[in-house]
């Protein structure tokens, strides 16, 4: 009897210890990789590196076109995925009736979240580049990345809506509100912190994607910037930048890593550091906004 209790105790303690060891090992490997990247790239981190275009000379190469292109792509991707992803999540969770059609949509959305990103790149190449003739433009890149992260936003929206207590909906209905008013003014504000976190974290994944953008033909060497959205002539806004060619930080880093010169490897390490800083900032904003909205809803 005592031996059986000892065996059960060992089994109970095995998984927490194994999980802790796996976490420590993973963090240790990540720490070693970050230290190695910092050691190789910190010397290149200066204003010149951020304001120079790519160059054949490693010491003069910079990431200006890459980080501006990344900014363009991220802003456009957010504009596409937020309304479409949130609206789709609301429909599936609040309006779609149980049945084969809903089950079909749910299964496919879950499966799409695990599809390799290069498949979306091939889809974007066929639809946006060839069919809609958008060429290798900023718009084609943003639409392709939107396909990659859209399932994540839909799933995050649905999970946030599920977390809203049923009593809140019933109280709203009891006060005479209809379904649309209940969703817009009660359910959605309560779930908005989770939805926003899901959107921002999906952007964190999109910022590191390379395969889909290479597939649609994003260039590795760009010595100009996409046209800005503002002009001095009426109506003071232009969409010309959406049609321009572009590159992004992951592609620029990939290009430098593939070169034999050691100087370009230092440039790649510096680019990775900038990419890590941007990714960490996005994750920090997700946590910060989630906490702020939760506090706001408690006060409300």
Any descriptors?
300 residues, mainly alpha, MetI-like fold, globular
Secondary structure elements and pairings:
Elements lengths: L1 H40 L5 H5 L12 H32 L4 H13 L4 H15 L6 H25 L3 H9 L4 H28 L4 H5 L33 H9 L4 H38 L1
- According to CATH, the homologous superfamily is MetI-like
Q: Report the β-strand fraction as a percent range.
A: under 5%
Distance between the termini: 56 Å
Briefly, what CATH class? Mainly Alpha
Count of distinct strands? 0
| Contiguous uncertain segments of 5+ residues | none
Count of all domains: 1
User: What's the average pLDDT?
Assistant: 83
Structural class: mainly alpha
How would you characterize this protein structure?
Helix 7 packs antiparallel against helix 8. The protein is built from 11 helices and no strands. It is an all-alpha fold and 300 residues long.
Brief description of this entry?
The chain has about 300 residues and is mainly α. It has helices spanning about 1-40, 45-50, 65-95, 100-110, 115-130, 140-160, 165-175, 180-205, 210-215, 250-255, 260-300.
